[in-house]
Each structure stands twice: as C-alpha cells, then as structure tokens.
Amino acid sequence: MRDLDHLEAQSVYILREAFRTVPRLGLLWSIGKDSNVMIWLAKKAFLGRIPFPVVHLDTGKEFPETYAFRDRYTVEWDLDLIADACPPIEAVDPTLPPASRLAARKTLGVRQAIDRYAFQGVVAGIRRDEQSTRAKERVFSPRGEAGRWDFKDQPAEFWDHFNIAVPPGTHLRIHPLLHWTEVDIWRYTQREEIPVVPLYFARDGKRYRSLGEEGITSPIDSEATTIEDIIAELEATRTAERAGRAMDHESEDAFERLRTEGYL
Amino acid sequence: MNPRDPARQPPLPIVIVGHVDHGKSTLVGRLLHETGSLPDGRVEQIRADSRKRGMPFEWSFVMDALQVERDQGITVDTTQIWFSTAKRRYVIIDAPGHKEFLKNMVTGAAAAEAAVLVIDAQQGISEQTRRHAFLLHLLGISRVAIAVNKLDLVDYGEERFAAVEAGIRHYLDGLGIAPTAVIPVSARHGENIATAGGRTPWYAGPTVIEALDAFPDRAAPADQPLRFPVQDLYKFDERRLIVGRIAGGRLKVGDTLRFLPGGGEARIASIESWNRDTPQISAAAGQSVALTLDDEIFVERGHVAVHPDRPATATHAVTARLFWLAADTLTAGSRLSLRIGTADYEVAVEAIHRVIDSQDLGQAEADRIERNGVADVVLRSRAKMVVDAFAESPASGRGVLVRGHRIVGGCIIQGPAEVTTKENRNLTAVAHAVGGEERTRAYGHAAGVLWLTGLSGSGKSTLAMALERQLFDRGYGVYVLDGDNMRGGLCRDLGFSDGDRAENIRRVAETARLFVDAGFVVISAFISPSREDRNRAREIIGPGFNEVYVKAGLDVCEGRDPKGLYAKARAGEIASFTGISAPYEEPLVPDLTVDTADLSIHQSLARLTHYVENRFGRETALGATG
C-alpha cells in the first residue's frame, strides 16, 4: 500500500468512527491547507457530502483571499457552513502575551460554538509534526469542562480503538490528520488536485507557509509558485512550519498554555 | 525515499522502550541528530534552555518538549517523530518508562512494528526493563533490537556488556523473542548510533541505525484470510452502503461474503467511492471501503465479513492473555466490554487461569488481577463473538477492554474457550427440566412470535387484542406485548430517541423470547419503524419470529387518528413522530401482510387466525415434532 493511500484510509476510518460514535459533530475549517485536506477526506468518507456542519471560527481578521476562498468552496463543496464571529479580544485572558490573546479568541470561538450548537465532538485538522505539544495528542482527545485538555491524564488509545465517553459538560476533539506530516499534506493536495488559498504560493519572493490571522502571521522568503516547488522547498528546509506564527514564540510555554486552555 | 515518488511506502513505526533513566530520549535525540532530521536551530535552542536552567546539555530535551517534563525530568506521554535513513523512513515512538505511565506506553508501543529496548550498562536489567520487554511480547512485537547504553560510564568495558547481553538474551528467550542485535552504545557520545566511533573495537555487530535498517518490512496482512469488520451502514441516497476498513485479506466485486456471527451471505455488487475516474473493483487490507451487496441481508456494525471458505470463529467464550491498566483490581465475575474490530461484546471474566509475573515469567494461580498485571483468562459473552487466534490473524485476534467508554486494558486472543473447567459450570445456562418439544405436546401448539409492525393507527393494537381473545378461546397460551405493559414497567427508563427506541425493541424481543421458551404464542404490537431494529429482534427470537406488516397508508392512518396523535404531530407538539417527522421503513419481505385499508377488522382477524393455525396449530406442531 502506498503511503498516501495508507494515510487516507486511516483518516477515513477515524472520520467514520467519529460520525458513528459521537452524536453531534462539527468540523473546524480554518480554510488552511490542512483543513482543506480534511474536508476532502470527509467527502471521501461520506461519499460526496459531509453529513455534519463545517465551522469557521471567524475572527474577522483573516486575509481577503481566505474569505474569498471560503465563500467559493462553501458552495462548490456543498458545505453546511457555520461562520459565527469569535468573541472579542476583551473576553480573552489579559495575562497572555499580545499575539496569543488574538489566537485565544479562537479558543473562545470553539467554546461558543460548542455551547451554541451542543457539539459533542469537534473535528480538528492538527498534526503531530507541527508542534511538540500537538505531538502528545490522542486521536480522540477528551476535553474537560470549559474545553480544558488534561495532557497528564490521557486515556489509553491503541489498536485503533478510541475513547468515546462524553460526560455532560465535556466534549471530544477528534484529530483525523494527527499522523500526517506537512509534506504529506502537500503531496496529497497535489495528487488529489485540492484547491488552496493562493497565499501559499510565492509573490514577490514571499509566501505563507502557515496561514493565520493578518497581523500575527508572517510570510517566509520563497520562490515556490507551484506545489512541486513547495515540496522541494520543504525537503531542503530545516525551519519549523509554525515559525511565522507569532503566538508560538512569545514565551517558552505560551503555546502550551493556549492548548491547555483548549486552543487547537 | 523521495517524497515525490508516488510509490513511496508508509514509514516503519518503531518504539523505543526501557527503564525511565536508561537513556531512551537521549538515544532518540541522537538518532534524529545523526540522521539530519532536526530543524535548524533546535540544538542551539536546547543548549540555551539548558544553560538557563543551569543544567548540562541534554539530548533528551529534543523529545521532552513540554515544560512539566523538563521540570520533573520525566517524559509524560508518547510523541512521534519522523526520520529517514538511506534505506527507509521511520516514525519513532518514544514511550515513557515510568511505571505509573504504563497506559501511555501501551498507547505508543501498540502502534509499533519493531522495537529498540534500551538498557543502562551500569544499572543493568531492571524491573522495568523486563516489564517493557514483556509488554512487547504482549503486544505481539517480535522484531526487537537491544541498545546497551551509557557504555561510557563503564569505560566501554566488554565484560560488563557481555554480562548484560547474556542476561537480556536469557529473559527474552523465555518470551520467545530472539533479538536481531545487541549493540553496545553511548547515546550521549554518539558511539555506535550511526557509526562506530572506535571505542568498542571488540564489537563487530551493526550500529543502531544498521540494526533498524535490517528489520524486515511491515507484515503484509493482505495475504491473510479476509476480515472486514463492518464499521457502519450509510443510506445517504438510494444505495445501502456497508462501510469499514479491511483488517486482513482482500475482496473484489462479485465475491460472496458471509457476515458473522449471523451467517447471512450476499455478493459484493459494487465498491463505491467519491471522485474516482474508474470504478473500484477490488480492495485489500488497510483500505477503507464502501460496499453495496446484491441482496438486502441483515448487516450491522460489529458484524465481520469473511469469505465462506475461510471463516473466523463465532464463539461465546475465549481464552485470552489480558493486561489490565485501571487502578482497581479485576476479579473473576467482573463485567466489561470487549471491543474487537468494530464489535462491542458484553463479557464477564469467567475464570482467571493464571497471573503471570513479568519479572521471572513465573505463573501463579490467582483470583484477581492488579493494575498493570497480566493474566490468562476466560472471557464469556452472551452474544457470539467473532474472533481469530492472534497468531493467525492479529487484527481480529486482539481487543481492548472498555468500561464506561474508557479503555482499561487489552488482550490477545488465544482461541475459543472450552467449557470444561469447574468454575465454568456454574455460569453456563442450566438445561431446563422441561424441553420445548414437551411443552408443544402438552399445550397442543408450537410457540412463536407474531411481530406486528405498522404506522400508528394502522390497527396493530386493535388486531392484537382481538386475536389474543380469539386464540385464547381456542385453547392457545397467548399473550400480547404492547406499549402499555412494556413501557409502563420494564422499559420505564426509556424515551423516544433513536437509541431508546432501539433499546425498547431489544427488550421487547428478549421478553418475547422468554415467552416463546415458555411455550406461548406472543403477539407484539409496536410501530417498530426501523428495519434494523426488527432484524435484530428476528436475530434474538430466532426461527419463531414472524414479521406481520399491518399495512395502511399514512392518509388512512391520519384519517383514523384514534388517539389524536397525528394532529399533535402536525402541530409540532410531538417530536420525531413516525410517518410525519420520522421515517417508517416498510418490511421488505414480511411473513404476512394484512392490509387494513382494504380489509375489514373481521377479515383481517380471519387472515391472522388462519396464519396462526397453519404456523403454530396442533396439526402443524405435532406433525412437525411427532
């Protein structure tokens, strides 16, 4: 079995397991390359149409290209889109560093969506290789009250058997892309011809490797104008994928604090 | 190797295990460094972090990313990291070694196909070394290399190495594991990781990387017998799709599948997919597929499709080697769920044959299994379990133990259990002193169930009550199960959600089965709108089940509306009312259809009575049994 087929089959299995065992699901769509792949996999899992809502946590601060992409593919992909505005910055823990505060609006956005739509499961496109705290994740990750992640006491998860308990006041995070790498995502995007926001491709010697909000995401130096170029660039690079995401670097534990509080 | 190569294979998952202080994380940090897999700046960053804490530089900080780990000096959970050698790609799982984190270790190690066991040359083989090696055996991982680490602390002494090597080989031999290599290593100084640094001239074997590259490729489960655990059934459009991932073997369009434990057979009509240019005609182990069948036989999640010539075993009891991860003790008689593939079986620990000591591999009789303990047990299920012996088909020969939806243990299936031991006898069903045939003779009729299904207002209750009277007057032992006597008592805790409705029907079916055992003719009168639920009732009750479709169109039923329910449902006062806001699935091949829109009550009743006389009456019953 080829490696992309292997990854696809595993993700499809996870998505179908979530749909079967978790009553109310929402799939988080950041409009980035990873969650586009996740939507594609969900369309494969459910033979064309995703049978649960797709949620965009809208901070109002995405790039214009991102919004244009969202609006176009919501229609083309026949998505049941929820795009509520995230709570304002004033609602965020003021002790966090500035960029992390902006990011934490999405944490509040997830909680808001869970309260509003009574989701018991939130499907998110995080990957183990992105960031070292994400490497600790489970495929089915139980979240306590207010969405907190207790990484010190996670249940056992093996042989593709997942924990599906959702006590009142809690929810599950489901991570169908946990086992993928950044290069896998691009190779699959290329093979399947999945559309992406054009900001990933170089313009005037710069491109975005990871897409966040305007203002807290910086582009990298790059000449990559095709997916082929991007894959070649990633093979050569030794820089971390999220180097352009400001909140990861504000202090040693800023990102871990974000994640413990329920950030993606 | 090239990521642009479309034929690239998945990475080989390996796990690094061993005692908490024996240097696993250091070894992993070193492996990443030696294979050029660390991002630029990571080593400098760790150097700076270490200095800030007043600690010497630690390779293990590469892996120990979380702050709490750095503070406590322990890895909290598994992490996965990718690296490549000239030969192939690996995904490396660093499983934590501290005793209280065993469940995390299982989580990591279970995904591995091969392992490196790290032993401190100075400390030697510890309790945890043995425990971890034992766990590899439990998880079925037999490809193992040994890194005898910290050789710098014993001055690269050959004698010390030889002593550790002899000890671990002896222990592994008791588990049936032959290590592929035992390597003298200093992870801190990079000795024998990628290259021999010249400090161990007395050693001629492979380096750690050479030993990894020498592991054979992944096993190919595609060559095993077909095992296709049904994950779910979809009906998004006119197609009924049976979805799941093939655990072993291969299948193709036109194959006859047998669905265990029921045994129903049908052929694969198509393999459906989205966004493919050419239709898929075959699939193999590892692939997630969606099948359609040429016949609408009863299939549900947990069934396992096999080829009829290579079936799995369907059994009520298995012997298994079990490992227990929960804090409390597991005793004989404990009840749990056993999850194999996509099936959940309610099981009881029928017997604990022996508890196995991971230290000396000694076996002892015991009546309880403590946390992190291992034992050979018998697990008994009321429903038939579909299993294989692990040795023959790993994916269908292992399972997890679940309590309150949490995974609390795992087990490797050794095979079906024989019901011969003394402790088993108490728990197996006691044979009744009076047999079914005797009852038939004494009562003058056979037993069975008339399962009336149809919309609200179709006439089920009216017919059921009239039929009960008529049959009773003719000398039948007969009883009606309906909403009044079931919902008011046995099913008092159930509502009207899909799940509760399904459970209600299950309880009705189980109750009906008891009446059948007692020799009665049972008339059940429930809407029972779900085909799947009725099929489950058929499975519970067995051959005595007779599906009777009490048929009347929605307009007719709504016109009758004897309880005013349709009016309320139309007004939105009743959620999910069958026919209005919830579907009714007509029986596909009912044993009898009574069309109450066309027939009068009298005519309908005559038809039912005639059916009962033919099916259960004295002549048929005694003719059949005599």
Write structural notes for this entry.
- The complex is a heterodimer of chains A (264) and B (626).
- Chain A is 35% helix and 9% strand.
- By secondary structure, chain A is of the alpha/beta class.
- Chain A has 2 domains: 3-180 and 252-260, HUPs (Rossmann fold); 195-248, no CATH class.
- In chain A, strands 3-2-1-4-6-5 form a 6-stranded mixed beta sheet, covered by helices on one side.
- In chain A, α1 (3-21) crosses α2 (33-45) and α5 (182-192) packs antiparallel against α6 (227-236).
- The two termini of chain A are 31 Å apart.
- The mean pLDDT of chain A is 88.
- With 626 residues, chain B is of the alpha/beta class.
- Chain B has 4 domains: 12-213, P-loop containing nucleotide triphosphate hydrolases (Rossmann fold), CATH 3.40.50; 221-306, Translation factors (Elongation Factor Tu (Ef-tu), domain 3); 315-425, Translation factors (Elongation Factor Tu (Ef-tu), domain 3, Beta Barrel), CATH 2.40.30; 436-625, P-loop containing nucleotide triphosphate hydrolases (Rossmann fold, 3-Layer(aba) Sandwich).
- In chain B, 27% of the residues lie in helices and 27% in strands.
- A 7-stranded antiparallel beta sheet of chain B has the order 7-15-11-12-14-9-8, with no helix packed on it. A 6-stranded mixed beta sheet of chain B has the order 2-3-1-4-5-6, sandwiched between helices. Chain B has a 6-stranded antiparallel barrel with strand order 16-22-19-18-23-24.
- Chain B starts with 11 loop residues before the first strand and ends with a helix.
- Chains A and B meet through α1, α2, α5 and α6 of A and β2, α4, β9, β23 and β24 of B.
